[in-house]
Amino acid sequence: MKTIYICTDTVTGIFSGIYDAWKAEGEEDTCGIALRGTLEQQLFCEYVETKETEHKAVVVEAMIQKHLGMPAYWDIYHAALAADAGKGDAILGTMLAARRIKESRKIMEHLSHPAVEKVFELSRTVGGEAHAFKGFLRFRELVNGVLFAEITPKNHVLTCLAPHFADRLPRENWMIYDNAHKTFVVHEAGKKWVLGLNEQLNIEMVHNISDREREYARLWQGFFRTISIQSRESRSRQLQHLPLRFQKNMVEFKQ
């Protein structure tokens, strides 16, 4: 009988599920990971609720880094951030496959294995979206001086973006809100960023921008329109490089 470990759609939750599966010493075809809320129950399966803890996640993280290496760890970590219901199974399958080969640190080269291939593709998808947001994200200054940005990503990319902006804006108070997953990162000047989960946005607060921000937005929108050459505009080509889902949170596309 196959045992399915049910966990939350977070890195801590998935790694906790993998910890339980690994501790049970199940083989690839007798253990599985399912995300809470996406479960489709099957016959001849036992479903076990995973108790999510930081300790379990840290143990699995350390195990991956030690036996599979940092490049594989980052692929697995990024895969865990993907918007894909099968990512838990793919990560577990990759780790189980790694212990069956002589050089476990080369597991991500074994793309003929379905689980490894999926982890690789999910990692590329998440990494690509995070890279795009590093260029397309737009901060705006609120009346209280905080720099605020809102994004609507497909994947959970906030923890990929936070180190990037913490490095570039270390002396600023800023916040990035993920409207799709109701999460945010907050950075206080001179301190480390923190992640918040399952939070609703205070619409009134984040729309209360400073006069200086309002003027800069007007100037930027004017510049954006001025440099456009109407006879050479190509909406389809623009969408290829800048999809509509990014434009909704960019000041230059707001009326």
Main sheet: strand order: 4-5-6-7-8
Q: Provide the succession of SSEs.
A: EHEEHHHHEEHEEEHHHH
The parts where pLDDT drops under 50 for at least 5 residues are none
Tell me, briefly, the overall form: elongated
Number of helices: 10
Mean pLDDT: 91
Give the helix level as a range of percent: 40-55%
Q: Say what oligomer this is.
A: single chain
Question: Could you tell me the radius of gyration in angstroms?
Answer: 21 Å
What's the main sheet like? Answer: 5 strands, mixed
Question: What's the end-to-end separation, in Å?
Answer: 58 Å
Which structural class do the helices and strands define?
Answer: alpha/beta
DSSP, total strands: 8
Beta-strand fraction estimate: 5-15%
